[in-house]
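Q: Hi! First time asking for a complex rather than a single chain. Here are the components, and I think there are two in total. Is that enough to go on?
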Amino acid sequence: SQQGEEDPQALSIQEGENATMNCSYKTSINNLQWYRQNSGRGLVHLILIRSNEREKHSGRLRVTLDTSKKSSSLLITASRAADTASYFCQIREGSNYKLTFGKGTLLTVNP
Amino acid sequence: GAVVSQHPSRVICKSGTSVKIECRSLDFQATTMFWYRQFPKQSLMLMATSNEGSKATYEQGVEKDKFLINHASLTLSTLTVTSAHPEDSSFYICSARGGPGNTEAFFGQGTRLTVV
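A: Yes, that's all I need. Here is the structure of the assembled complex.
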């Protein structure tokens, strides 16, 4: 079953604004990853955060992980129209290699 | 990053026929490959996990006789949709991971299957 649950399911903002997406899960995880997917295309890996990490940055992306709350957030700062895409979190459960995706957040950045 | 090539990108087939989708890791050895299915505007659902040289592990509800997975080499896995029906129309995506210490999986560009 899918464990990752993103919210919101859809987010529409203006260019230049920040976008925050959240992902919650139920079991213990080894790591959590965020991906983006343009419509009808494959996935692009954005960032990986391990269970012993609390925050990571990559360019305009900031990911946080709160294992006590079993949640992660992805922040995109100074959004651009090109950031329009679906964003998915993916969790790796415990000690096995099973990878499951959340339902995704569709982000629309209006120029 | 590593490159995973998935072929074909689009395929249209008639009901009752079989379709094979290939997933290749071009510049690394993929000890594990994953196959996902994605319906429009929905998330990716893991169908099966395959390790090179062994039988694939299918997720609950996925018919192994309908979705045949072969991972015969460290750079190639194939998914064959047998006796395809219109309800099998979907976007299929593979990903490949190399070695137990490598936690990042790289994704192919996906295959849009339409069964008519």
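A: DSSP finds no helices and eleven strands in chain A. Let me know if you'd like any chain examined more closely.
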